[in-house]
Write a structure and sequence with these properties.
Length: 186
């Protein structure tokens, strides 16, 4: 999900005169909470759905989102963190509204890979199929980016905000020295 905005943003930043060296000086408070959240969610993705552990999964997912929100709030002075925070909250709302699962459009998944056959309800520990009982369906994974796009995917509105945040991150951070030197001249 973050490959495209990263590549596009880096290319645009370089064309505008941004410097990779500036990325060495990026300081994000509590950055390790983002890494921890990603690791926990990655590990959760390895497990199959089970009603037995449903409350535990909801709590764990809630904690990972809380860690991401804390990191975004600690760095709220950066524009990209404001955008990340919006994306995180949008995804959290739909996930918690649907019992700790991100609803995904089965039609969208079929649009990505016609051979995919998924059960009608749950298909992994973090995702469920969109159905008539889905809450906040407009925040679910329903935005299809199909083939011929080389990396077809299905996204949520929150994912789009997260991707925009990644784009803004590189646009801002690759120019940090220029901003400092311009303000010192003034």
């Amino acid at each position: 999900m973050f490959i495209e905005p990263t590549l596009i943003s880096v290319i645009i930043a370089k064309l505008r005169g941004g410097r990779f060296k500036n990325l060495e000086n990026v300081h994000i408070r509590a950055w390790y909470l983002l890494i921890l959240s990603a690791l926990i969610q990655g590990i959760l993705s390895l497990f199959k759905y089970s009603n037995i552990y449903k409350i535990v999964i909801i709590v764990i997912i809630g904690i990972t989102y809380l860690l991401m929100i804390i990191t975004a709030i600690l760095n709220i002075n950066r524009n990209y963190m404001k955008i990340f925070l919006i994306g995180i909250i949008l995804n959290l709302v739909v996930i918690m509204g649907n019992g700790g699962h991100m609803p995904v459009s089965l039609e969208g998944i079929k649009g990505i890979n016609q051979e995919t056959i998924l059960p009608e309800r749950e298909f992994d520990i973090k995702h469920v199929a969109v159905n008539k009982d889905t809450k906040f369906v407009y925040l679910a994974d329903i935005i299809l980016i199909p083939r011929p796009y080389p990396l077809p995917k299905i996204l949520s509105l929150g994912d789009i905000f997260l991707m925009i945040g990644v784009f803004v991150f590189f646009q801002e951070e690759m120019f940090i020295e220029k901003k400092k030197s311009i303000s010192q001249v003034s």
